[in-house]
Specification:
- The protein is mostly beta strands.
- The protein folds into two domains: 112 residues, no CATH class; 149 residues, no CATH class.
- The chain has an eight-stranded antiparallel beta sheet. Strands 8, 9, 12, 15 and 18 form a five-stranded antiparallel beta sheet that branches. It has a five-stranded antiparallel beta sheet with strand order 14-13-16-17-19, with no helix packed on it.
Length: 306
């Protein structure tokens, strides 16, 4: 009997060993490869948002399906106050990475209940020889060219009547022709983004409101008085001053800014994309048209390498 038990146990070990080897052979662990990101110019998004990378597979073009349905996440990361990424290397399925035609960087909520990419695409690029050059101009990112953007503004406070505290308001319009015209020439933004005007007053950025078109009023007037303003983006800084400021004020010597903001926007400060910036002259006077400068060097850029 003892001999029979020994033989049975030996047989179990032999056949059991063969079965385990077959499982390893038939179900090998997927091979991984490392995607390396080198991106400069990104900003700290705070605790409620994070960056997420995505690779796009060739089926995007073949099926005509939406990018979100065919994107595969490469992982999330954050950026600190100095612009340093919390992670730059991401191990993902080697076959997927080898077949990827494009890399896309999005901004996602934290926590994120949706496994698909958000509409806020900030950088993208197509792979060529193993590297994707990432820009906001790519058609899978913001996808528009800001190089022809122009900006103009005047100082005035129309919401409290004429000739009162006129240097305490800014309106993005152009009076150089003798009649009020839109002062901003900006491309149409895709879903997930809006423009926002700002004036830096005594070192503090104060919003003038968000907008999608330069020839209509913006969506807020928290600091204006009771009279109607012109049909353009802008703001009078007359009431409800933020802590640390006193309204009315004189914004001469400050800075006028147009930023591009993600939607939704979890920050009360300007986002890192600021295509137009204008130093308001220290001797600025009301109802004179002043121009803004292109600020495209502030845009983030980088590479994704496989």
């Amino acid at each position: 009997m003892k001999a029979l038990l020994i033989l049975s146990f030996t047989a179990f070990l032999i056949f059991g060993g063969c079965s385990n080897e077959d499982n390893v052979t038939n179900n090998p662990a997927p091979e991984t490869a490392t995607l390396t990101l080198n991106i400069s110019g990104l900003a700290d998004l705070g605790p409620d948002a994070q960056y997420e990378g995505w690779i796009i597979l060739p089926s995007t073009a073949k099926t005509g399906g939406s990018q979100g349905e065919l994107a595969k996440s490469t992982g999330v990361f954050t950026v600190d106050a100095n612009g340093n990424m919390s992670k730059t290397g991401f191990d993902i399925d080697a076959n997927d990475l080898s077949n990827a035609i494009k890399f896309v960087l999005t901004i996602e909520p934290n926590p994120d209940p949706d496994p698909n990419p958000s509409a806020v695409h900030i950088l993208a690029g197509s792979f060529s020889s193993g590297t994707a050059d990432l820009t906001i101009n790519d058609d899978a990112a913001i996808g528009v060219d800001f190089s022809s953007s122009t900006g103009a503004y005047i100082l005035a406070t129309p919401t409290n009547g004429a000739d009162t505290d006129e240097n305490s308001g800014i309106w993005f319009l152009d009076l150089s022709s003798g009649s009020p015209m839109a002062g901003l020439n900006l491309p149409v933004l895709p879903a997930g983004w809006k423009y926002e005007g700002w004036t830096v007053i005594n070192g503090m950025p104060v919003t003038t409101g968000t907008f999608t078109s330069a020839d209509v009023v913006d969506d807020a007037d928290p600091y204006s008085s009771t009279m109607p303003g012109p049909p353009f983006p802008g703001e009078d800084f007359l009431v409800n001053a933020p802590s640390g400021l006193t309204f009315p004020t004189d914004i001469a010597g400050g800075v006028a800014v147009i930023s591009i903001e993600p939607v939704p926007d979890n920050s009360a400060s300007p986002f890192l994309l600021k295509p137009l910036v204008g130093m308001i002259p220290s001797d600025a006077t009301d109802h004179v048209t002043y121009t803004m400068d292109l600020n495209l060097t502030s845009f983030p850029t980088g590479t994704a390498k496989r």
